Amino acid sequence: MSIFPQGEKPIGLASDHAGFAIKKYIVNLFDEKGIKYIDFGTYGTESVDYPDFAHKLGTAIDNKECDFGIAICGTGNGINMALNKHQSVRSALCWNTEITRLTRAHNNANILTLPGRIISQQEAYDMIVVFFNTEFEGGRHQSRIDKIPCA
Ligand code: RB5
Questions:
Q1: pTM of this prediction?
Q2: Confidence band (pLDDT; 50, 70, 90) for 1?
Q3: Which residue lies with its CA nearest to atom 4 of ligand 1?
């Protein structure tokens, strides 16, 4: 069994310039492992606004083009805030593998958001592996996440 996502749908990727290096690392990793993805940009290090890329990925989750995504900006905070405006998105800002495990198990997070200026490539790799290999526990956690969307 692969430690990487094997689902039918592509993984959505998005970053701003501050997350571009880690996104490029993930693109190369997914290419190497044969993992399907859609790269919603940005595509270079020129300064851009993270909501422009967050909303492309958030829309892809809303319209079910993607079931899961990975997003990166400098701190992870800005892109995470913009993503979580989308009703179908549960984006979790993660900085270690335990936070990552818990957000899959308890929050059924569908976007892993990373702080590109804070973490190493190895830390990103470790969190991606945990994110895609932890099942949602359901039960009491399902009723809690059912209450997240605004009316
Ligand atoms: C860009 O300089 C930086 O502000 C952005 O990547 C992010 O950290 C915002 O939350």
A1: 0.96
A2: very low
A3: 74
Q: Is 66 in the pocket of ligand 1 (CB under 6 A)?
A: no
- Ligand 1 pocket: which of 22, 50, 84 to mutate (most atoms within 8 A of CB): 50
| DSSP conformational letter for 48 | -
Three-class SS state of 93: strand
| CA–CA separation, 61 and 48 (whole Å) | 22
The residue from 17, 55, 86, 106 that is catalytic is 106
Q: Which helix (H) or strand (E) holds 112?
A: strand 111-115
Which domains, and CATH codes, for the chain?
Answer: 11-146 (3.40.1400.10)
Q: Is 53 in the pocket of ligand 1 (CB under 6 A)?
A: no
* Paired strand residues for 115: 73
Active site annotation includes 106: yes
Give residue-wise pLDDT tens across range 62-74.
999 999 999 999 9
Structure tokens at 103: 């957000």
C-alpha to C-alpha distance for 47 and 27, rounded to whole angstroms: 20
